[in-house]
Structure of Hexose transporter 1:
Amino acid sequence: MMVSLIVVSITFVDDVNTSEASIAVVGLGFYLAFFSIGMGPGAWLIPSEVFPSSVRTKAMSVATFFNRLTGTLMSSTFLSTASAMSWTGAFLLLAAVCTISALFIFFYLPETKGRSLEDMSMYFAEITGDQSLLEAEDKAVEKRRSTAAAEIEAVTLS
């Protein structure tokens, strides 16, 4: 996404001619394509994989609200930003925001592949120090162990 925005910003350095306008349109097309398979669905994908069932609906509502709010703010302020900074500056600013977002996601967003919602809850409880959740999980693990031990004993006796 960042590279696409940089390509678009370069086309606006001088007066735009027909070939540069074509490059800008292609660059925006690539930006939209990468956004659609990358950060675009993030507002729905990340909360659905990170939050436990008890708060997932509220988290999805908050994520959707901020997604729509950000889209509205971007749409309503882009032209004034481009007028104040220049078109090149506006697209470079967006490229910088994309870069910062990508770095944040890479370094701080946990990998959810192969992890259950309970694992994610425990992950966040550990990094936030939420003792109540950690204690509840310890009790649940102990209960599962005792149930499994009882089932093994029942099978062994029969």
Remarks:
- Residues 2-109 form one domain.
